[in-house]
Amino acid sequence: MQHGWAWDAGAWQGWRAAAGARAKFQVLERGYFGRPAMAWSDIERQTSCQIVVAHSLGLHFLSAACLERAQLLVIVGGFQRFHPEEGIAARRSGRVVQRMLERLPLEPWGLIDDFYTQCFAPAAKECATLETANIQLLERDLKRLHTDELELTVAETVPRTLLLHGGADCIVPLERAEHLHSQLPSSQLRVFADAGHALPFTHTQACWDVVEQVWQQREI
Question: pTM for the whole thing?
Fold first, then answer.
């Protein structure tokens, strides 16, 4: 499981509770907030992760080695590229990220707290801002939103892909998931109409139920 920008591995705790004893989890850590970073290379290669889950920009952190044994890739609030290709929407999206980059070194906690508020919308924010942050890493990864375009050949090696997206996501609009869905022939798209960008943390049980349903279909 890989979290996205400005989250940490602890955000996935609810998924452990939802799955109970039916699944074992390997949770990757980017290292934004004082926890030691943990990438796939830090996990024993004998581990077989048949389901890989990534939230938002976390999809872009996944390596080919992480996906090589996966049977199901779950993309929550994900995108191939963050900005639209052109037009007013592209310019507006670029300005939003640029303002975040300018604000980050000046008032990181205010920016991150506002980001969480937008992620949880339309629900109320449910997480607290942490006390220690790697500002350089946060800045470096935030810049990736300007430039990164996911190489889909890596994702295409996974037999099944499930896209979960919030219909009210104001960070990554639903159009990004629809575009990704159109580019991945083996994918399914499930939309939670009342959810925002924090979908995996506000609708944890509902997300896990869909994952289990799709996983069980692999044998049909």
Answer: 0.94
